[in-house]
Design brief:
NmrA-like, Rossmann fold, NAD(P)-bd_dom_sf, Ergot_Alk_Oxidoreductase, 10 helices, three-stranded mixed sheet, alpha/beta
Length: 278
């Protein structure tokens, strides 16, 4: 077995690559720059380069896909087509696509949702044995500068909106289970733990909650991700506040990690980080 992790240079794909390598699998990590975690074979490729993507699949039996934070529909469509064509040509036994977010059940006009919805549909219809994993918000977001500081938790959602959270480690465990488990092809697994509101999350951290203006959130995110990616992410928060307050609330009974075990609760995650107590 050889597992290709697309997006291994990022936080989500990197966590998956580290988990699979620690489990003893041969892992090749594809990223645009060629960065990959220690113990993972690095492979530099732009997903828009079909020939280079096909090269990455040499000898590959399984693939985990996390798309980059690009939301232009035609560009994402080409990325997905190149990956699925390469996976089909290589005879991949299982492909797991991480949508990077919970997805509304309809077209929204929000590119960050709609491009991933189209990607998931393409994977499931491709003929490549595929599983889609759909995470909620990540606990690691709480460690970003300015989010939990000075006894205040700042987040761009109203404090009474219920949110299911997931750690990168739990994402990696769920992805491993989806890649290697039986009877999962053609399914979508909704990831996450029991939802908590922002007010409840702040209380667990011994802080007060402050709803962050989405425009301020977008400006801060732009410095780290670039204007296009920041705008795409910010638009999801605007849509949720206006149309989808329950998007992060749902959790399938007992299947939050797709059979990979229990999920880390926000309280447990915070308790393991001394900076949160401060």
């Amino acid at each position: 077995m050889r597992i290709l992790v697309i997006g291994a240079g990022g936080a989500q794909g990197g966590a998956v690559a580290r988990r699979l390598a620690a489990e003893g699998y041969a892992v090749r990590g594809l990223s645009r720059t060629g960065s990959a975690p220690q113990g993972v074979e690095p492979f530099a490729a732009d997903l828009g380069d079909a020939a280079r993507v096909a090269e990455a699949f040499a000898g590959v039996t399984h693939v985990s896909v996390t798309l980059p934070l690009v939301f232009e529909a035609e560009r994402v469509e080409s990325y997905v087509r190149n990956v699925l064509d390469a996976a089909s040509g290589a005879g991949v036994r299982r492909l797991v696509l991480n949508t990077g977010n919970r997805l509304p059940g309809r077209v929204t006009g929000v590119a960050a949702f709609d491009t991933r919805r189209a990607a998931a549909a393409a994977a499931l219809a491709s003929g490549v044995p595929s599983v889609v994993v759909s995470p909620p918000l990540y606990l690691e977001n709480l460690a970003a500068p300015g989010v939990l500081e000075g006894g205040v938790l700042r987040h761009p959602l109203p404090g009474d909106v219920p949110v299911s959270w997931l750690s990168h480690a739990d994402l990696a465990a769920a992805t491993s289970a989806a890649l290697l488990g039986d009877g999962r092809d053609g399914t979508t697994v909704t990831l996450g733990g029991p939802p908590v509101t922002g007010l409840e999350l702040a209380a667990a951290a011994g802080a007060r909650y402050e709803e962050l203006d989405v425009a301020v959130f977008e400006a801060g995110l732009s410095a780290a991700l670039g204007a296009g990616a920041a705008a795409g992410v910010a638009d999801t928060y605007r849509w949720i506040a206006a149309h989808g307050r329950d998007l992060y609330a749902g959790r399938p009974g007992g299947a939050g990690t797709g059979g990979a075990g229990t999920v880390t609760t926000p309280r447990e995650w915070l308790a393991a980080r001394p900076w949160a107590a401060r």
